[in-house]
């Protein structure tokens, strides 16, 4: 069956698509930054001395990683509203994604932290570094560098996952596309365009991570070799 | 484009082959002779048609079909149809008529005939918490929940644009999610078919969503095959009589909890 492609809707709707793309980008950046911070704190908690802290972080990670993001989002958006706490759709979307991604980031960062050799920790102790100083100067930088590729792919995944927040009426790229589709019925063309936009976004995110790596990891910058 | 063309030719082909088999002159006479009428009803479209807790078929379309069969003096056979197969069931003579929340459109009129409108499906502004809305201006600055891409979405979006009102249209993927948002209190205002609210309000008596302002009514007709002038004339007269006697209005009110518009004839 011959199919006639018709991209004429673009001339009318491209500002809408750009608006959706912008919200997707904003959401991705916010959730990646916050998710990384919260996840790192959780990872430190999972490797803490106190068994209670370790257990609490462990339960959080297990609960979040074993429930779908959509369910978490519905619980926050509809559940809290039923209890009288009315939060906006964009806020709920970002909150639920941060909660979700932080559990995954926690496990990735924990792997990095646990890869630091005991000898290095003992050396830090001999130098008289406090626990916080050890964490900041000896443990976290090489731990992050080691799991950096895994973090990057997880964050690109979460950028793509923002597409599900259209379910709770946040008007990001996918949601805008669905709306244009319901007016113009050019589904094939619209989702082709949207897929292309997501690819461009993913390439941009990957490029940004590459740049950040060059900036913050001196060894990589000077020698060009991974840790 | 290609698909639409293919479907049209399929429908025409089916229609032609169906009419070739039996070249009956008058469907009305056939129905009376057989002492039975087969009517297609959508039983998945509460409160138009549904199956209740005791597996009984109920709803305003079911009640309308029962009334029609009684007035014809024949036995009623109900066949369950879905929105997508209403026209094929008619064209292949699996049913004599279709009473299934069937909106009268020009596109459909090319293939089948409709009786005069016996009911409507509406697009209305409904609210929770006793919020009163008597005109669109009352929605200034408010968030309004709709199902994305639905007729309701298009009507309120256009109305807000045309009147220059600052209304935030909050769009959800399906009816269930939009209803959830209103029931849970994310939005107080909902643009929806009031009929859809009947089962919702029955399930949530504490948090009723009340229709406030009707934005638009879409007439529903009884679908029948083309070239059946006697049957069509009888159906038109039957609808007119029963709207006048109030029987159809009563049925609608029972299941939909809203009144039919006074001037149903204006949709003819």
UniProtKB/TrEMBL annotation, chain A:
<keyword id="KW-0813">Transport</keyword>
<keyword id="KW-0472">Membrane</keyword>
<keyword id="KW-1003">Cell membrane</keyword>
<protein>
    <submittedName>
        <fullName>Amino acid ABC transporter permease</fullName>
    </submittedName>
</protein>
<feature type="transmembrane region" description="Helical">
    <location>
        <begin position="190"/>
        <end position="213"/>
    </location>
</feature>
<dbReference type="InterPro" id="IPR035906">
    <property type="entry name" value="MetI-like_sf"/>
</dbReference>
<dbReference type="InterPro" id="IPR010065">
    <property type="entry name" value="AA_ABC_transptr_permease_3TM"/>
</dbReference>
<dbReference type="InterPro" id="IPR043429">
    <property type="entry name" value="ArtM/GltK/GlnP/TcyL/YhdX-like"/>
</dbReference>
<dbReference type="InterPro" id="IPR000515">
    <property type="entry name" value="MetI-like"/>
</dbReference>
<keyword id="KW-1133">Transmembrane helix</keyword>
<feature type="domain" description="ABC transmembrane type-1">
    <location>
        <begin position="21"/>
        <end position="209"/>
    </location>
</feature>
<dbReference type="Pfam" id="PF00528">
    <property type="entry name" value="BPD_transp_1"/>
</dbReference>
<feature type="transmembrane region" description="Helical">
    <location>
        <begin position="57"/>
        <end position="81"/>
    </location>
</feature>
<keyword id="KW-0812">Transmembrane</keyword>
<feature type="transmembrane region" description="Helical">
    <location>
        <begin position="20"/>
        <end position="45"/>
    </location>
</feature>
<comment type="similarity">
    <text>Belongs to the binding-protein-dependent transport system permease family. HisMQ subfamily.</text>
</comment>
<feature type="transmembrane region" description="Helical">
    <location>
        <begin position="150"/>
        <end position="170"/>
    </location>
</feature>
TrEMBL record, chain B:
<feature type="domain" description="Solute-binding protein family 3/N-terminal">
    <location>
        <begin position="36"/>
        <end position="259"/>
    </location>
</feature>
<keyword id="KW-0732">Signal</keyword>
<dbReference type="Pfam" id="PF00497">
    <property type="entry name" value="SBP_bac_3"/>
</dbReference>
<feature type="signal peptide">
    <location>
        <begin position="1"/>
        <end position="25"/>
    </location>
</feature>
<protein>
    <submittedName>
        <fullName>Transporter substrate-binding domain-containing protein</fullName>
    </submittedName>
</protein>
<dbReference type="InterPro" id="IPR001638">
    <property type="entry name" value="Solute-binding_3/MltF_N"/>
</dbReference>
């Amino acid at each position: 069956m011959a199919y006639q492609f018709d991209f004429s809707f673009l001339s009318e709707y491209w500002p809408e698509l750009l608006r959706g793309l912008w919200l997707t980008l904003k959401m991705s950046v916010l959730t990646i930054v916050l998710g990384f911070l919260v996840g790192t704190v959780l990872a430190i908690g999972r490797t803490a001395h106190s068994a209670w802290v370790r257990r609490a972080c462990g339960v959080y990670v297990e609960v979040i990683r074993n429930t779908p993001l959509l369910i978490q989002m519905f619980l926050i958006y509809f559940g809290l509203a039923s209890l009288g706490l009315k939060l906006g759709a964009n806020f709920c979307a970002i909150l639920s994604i941060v909660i979700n991604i932080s559990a995954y980031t926690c496990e990735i960062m924990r792997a990095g932290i646990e890869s630091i050799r005991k000898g290095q920790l003992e050396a830090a102790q001999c130098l008289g570094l406090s626990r916080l100083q050890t964490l900041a100067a000896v443990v976290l930088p090489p731990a992050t560098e080691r799991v950096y590729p895994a973090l990057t792919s997880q964050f690109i995944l979460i950028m793509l996952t923002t597409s599900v927040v259209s379910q709770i009426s946040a008007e990001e790229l996918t949601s805008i596309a669905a709306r244009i589709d319901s007016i113009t019925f050019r589904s094939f063309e619209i989702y082709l365009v949207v897929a292309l936009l997501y690819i461009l976004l993913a390439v941009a995110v990957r490029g940004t991570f590459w740049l950040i790596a060059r900036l913050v990891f001196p060894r990589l910058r000077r020698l060009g070799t991974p840790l | 484009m290609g698909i639409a063309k293919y479907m049209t030719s399929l429908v025409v082909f089916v229609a032609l082959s169906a009419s070739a088999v039996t070249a009956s002159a008058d469907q009305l006479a056939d129905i009376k002779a057989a002492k039975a009428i087969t009517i297609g009803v959508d039983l998945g479209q509460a409160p138009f048609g549904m199956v209740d807790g005791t597996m009984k078929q109920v709803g305003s379309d079911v009640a309308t079909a029962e009334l029609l069969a009684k007035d014809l003096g024949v036995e009623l056979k109900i066949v369950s149809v879905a929105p997508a197969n209403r026209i094929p069931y008619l064209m292949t003579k699996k049913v004599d008529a279709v009473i299934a929340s069937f909106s009268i459109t020009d596109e459909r009129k090319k293939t089948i005939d409709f009786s005069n409108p016996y009911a409507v499906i509406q697009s209305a502004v409904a609210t929770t918490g006793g919020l009163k809305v008597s005109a669109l201006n009352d929605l200034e600055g408010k968030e309004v929940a709709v199902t994305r891409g639905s007729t309701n979405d298009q009507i309120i979006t256009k109305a807000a644009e045309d009147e220059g009102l600052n209304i935030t249209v909050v769009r959800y993927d399906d009816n269930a999610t939009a209803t959830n948002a209103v029931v849970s209190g994310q939005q107080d205002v909902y643009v929806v078919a009031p009929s859809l609210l009947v089962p919702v309000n029955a399930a949530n008596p504490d948090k009723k969503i009340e229709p406030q302002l009707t934005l638009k009514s879409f007439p529903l007709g009884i679908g029948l095959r083309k070239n059946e002038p006697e049957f069509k004339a009888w159906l038109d007269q039957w609808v007119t009589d029963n709207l006048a006697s109030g029987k159809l209005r009563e049925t609608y009110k029972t299941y939909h909890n809203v009144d039919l518009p006074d001037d149903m004839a204006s949709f003819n």
